[in-house]
Design brief:
heterodimer, A: about 375 residues, alpha/beta, 4-stranded mixed sheet, 14 helices, about 10% strand, elongated, B: about 375 residues, 15 helices
Chain lengths: ~375, ~375
Amino acid sequence: MRTLLFLIRKEYLQIFRDRATVFQIFFIPIVQLLLLSNAATFGITNARMHVVDLDRSTMSRGLVEHLVASGRFVVSSAVPSQEAANQSLLDREATVILTIPSRFERDLVRQGTAPVQLVLNAEEGAAAGIVQAYALQIIGDYGRQLGIELRPQTDPRIDPAPRAATAAFDVRARSWFNPTLNYKHYMVPGILVSLVTIIGMLLTAQNIAREKEAGTLEQLNVTPITKGQFIAGKLLPFWLLALVMFSLGLIAGKLAFGIPMRGNLLLVFFSAAVYLTVALGTGLWIATIASTQQQTMFVSFFVLVIYLLMSGLFTPIDSMPTWAQWMAELNPVKHFVVIMRAVLVRGADLSGIAVPLGALATLGLLVLTAAVRQYSKTHG
Amino acid sequence: MSALRGFVRKETWHLLRDRQTLGILILMPLIQVLLFGFAVRTEVDNIRLAIVDPTPDYRSVELRSRFGATSNFRIVGAVGSTAELQPLFESGQVRQAVVFEPRFAERIGRGEAVAIQLITDATDPNTGSIMQAYAMSVIRQYEAELARTAPRVRIVPQVQMRFNPTLESVNLFVPGLIAFVLTLTSALMTAISITREKEMGTMEVLLVSPLRPWQIVVGKVIPYIALGFGNVLLVLTAARVVFGVPINGNPALLLAESLLYIVVALALGVLISTVAPSQRVAMMAALAGLMLPTMMLSGFIFPIESMPAPLRALSNIVPARWFVIVVRGIMIKGIGIEHLWRETLVLVGMATTLLTLSARRLAVRLG
């Protein structure tokens, strides 16, 4: 035990001596958490729209006003030329082209129907889909509104008496579990987990790799410490640091974004403790295999990106192919994010998170066993 | 000049000597693009949909089949009442539900307003709003079809998804992924270049040599440009051959822009290297400092348009942001330099600034 304490003390001396590292450990996560949590949304508010209004009538202007009044669209240009509109789409000055043909108003009044053309820049698929849905919704609403205004004028010869199947669907959309669609409450825990993982794993991995390169690992190897003590001595200091980082991040998230904390915080910290064993243990394991600092960093980068991109944090797991969904089950980030969201947002208790917590504990045991076995005192 | 040539040769030797690392540097970007290209989708697919239809009739069944016909939805069950939905949503078996009114067809026939309730699991609000948008457009399309049989005032939107008509997710994701992977690997490659010399004490040797600071910076970058360009060729080939992402624009322009971008990313690494006091700090800055900002502020996953104004402004200094536009522009839109000159100029400006700053930092240390 005393040996272990000495090892830990040595690591802390080395870290806190290095001002730049201390700065990075505390500065990078907080700043990125505060900034990036605002970025993670698909909710489009200001889609730039190039309007080609060839009709210039009350109704065509009404349509444009309706779109703008929704707050979803802004008119980036109203040059009534298809050519100019195409150019602005290519230059990314506009995301949508709305073309209102001439005789729009006349057709609406006389025939009761008129086309408009919507061209979307589908470079960003999900965004384009959402912009389209907004636009269709608003245009449909406007049509219904005009219908009510125009009905007295409508010629009975065109609109024969039995108004068969003029369905006007009144769609009432409801969002369960997160009625206000607040993405920050959802993203802040996820981004915090990512940041703590990135920094914790890199610090742990780099630490051993450097000792390898500098040759000081050999010196440790000839001391009487056991493999287990060595791994613990390398893991614990960074594990504690990561927990501190995590706590600071939670406080920042609470203060800046008001993330809910409905469940028991002790449960969150207990899960974090288990999770960090897996995340840092992975870094340790990588470092025992790789031979240089550069290699260690590249492999850690590789694993980190797998952890982050395949965790369902940024993209839905349901859309992944089956094999990738199975891989996601081995992903500690996925399980920990599930726990965080369940406890913080829904107020789940221990029984509610037993499955992901069990998965984390199993992964932790596996990774640590692998690291202890991989680390060999004789080969340096 | 011959001093520079000698220096470049020395650097190249260092790079080629360590076969294991070289293998990792060459293969890792390729494996990442392949793995994530197959595994990750930004689109929302396979939405598990439940139907609540107490009194099914021909209209409600017709609308249900519209949902079943798209690849976005998978109808997993029909229940009799809304109360039965709660446990299905909680266990995650169902993500979305459409609730019909009784006597659906009859009400439509009489021209009454028909209520449809759309319940969405918004635990993840991003996916939630996409699911909602998809379902809405299915319902609205059906509504428009019904209205066609009875002329009344209606505006018929004709929608065209330009550049990627089928919204093929691979076509959007892979170019962004290439930008992300190239940024991180290139910056990481050079981030330790000068710090390592400092840590090993060989920097002193370089400083007393006849090499000028800019020559040291350039000499460090050149061998990696070749390596980075190799990476570009591999990942672009993979994108084209494995994922069938079109290259609608000029391939030569794409390669030239990629080369330019590699220089930007490598220069970023060198700058980190001149500032960082140790390899640890350098690599942390390159990875922890760049990974999430590049992922989130480049438009690779989240559209920049939807970000608040300060973040949109901040995204301008993220190099990958500009490269994502260029790659998507050339590969998918098929546009040329006449539309991309602004982005290209920004990248040229970034490369120049980063390299100059690096040389300056090095010169300061000399004094």
